Amino acid sequence: MVILIVARYTLLEAMRRRVLLAMVVLSLAYLGLFALGLSLLYQEVAKEAGGATVGAANALLMFSALMTLLGFYAFSFLASLLALFAAAGALAGEVESGVIHAVLAKPVRRSDVVLGKWLGQTVIIAVYVAAMTAGMVAASQIAAGYAPPDPVLAAIFIMWSSLILLSLGTLGGTFLPTLANGVAVFLLFGLSRVGGLIESLGQMVRSAQMVDVGIGVSLLIPNDVLWQAASYYLQPTAMILAQNASSGAVIPFASATPPTTAMLLWSAGYVAAALVGAVLIFRHRDL
Description:
Layout: H1 2-16, H2 18-49, H3 54-88, H4 92-97, H5 99-104, H6 110-144, H7 151-172, H8 178-205, H9 208-220, H10 223-232, H11 237-245, H12 261-283
Helix pairs in contact: 1-6, 2-3, 2-6, 3-6, 3-7, 3-8, 6-7, 6-12, 7-8, 7-10, 7-12, 8-9, 8-10
């Protein structure tokens, strides 16, 4: 299929770019820094806890889980930024440079170009998320002897949250220049994270208005809500029970409840709608 051919060349082009190499180097540096920092902190907390009592063991478990959750939260930012930068100039850059004319001069449908590029970038992000998840789990295990309950499901949701930005960037690339597209998607990404924070804080202080604002932002761009779903599968049962038992125990950047079916369906439809919109707009765009 032509879509697969376009996806293949998208992968090859990405491998030649120094941006991808820089992302890999910085991600490896992040993993090393995370492992070192967690190890040093864990040793200090273990000294303070003292003894092999049940209370000390629970304190170390909660500490390790919280630090690992923080590490994954930062990693989700990296995955989202990778998706954002991958999509920002994928179509817009080729239109601006004129490369798209050489591509479309061949018997290639515009929809094949849009979907092929999206598919190629999806593969890149999937490999990145899988590798980083494995690295995070290994670092946590080595540094603190802790492994998240279900890192595979967490990785799926982190990947899914990145696809939201990738799909939005693909849509924006069909009618916006590269810079404007990148800025727009980045601002939406920031809005999503702020909205998620507002909703979490609203639950903490029991403010229905704040929760409604957060839900509204999640419907506008469900990037953060999918991270919240990932965070649920990164927490041990004790941490989830503690959050559900007291509103004061809520962690602002994590969720103590599993994702709802309605939100998952909305998120899936969101990606599909963005891709359909991208295909329709690019098909009728004057190049």
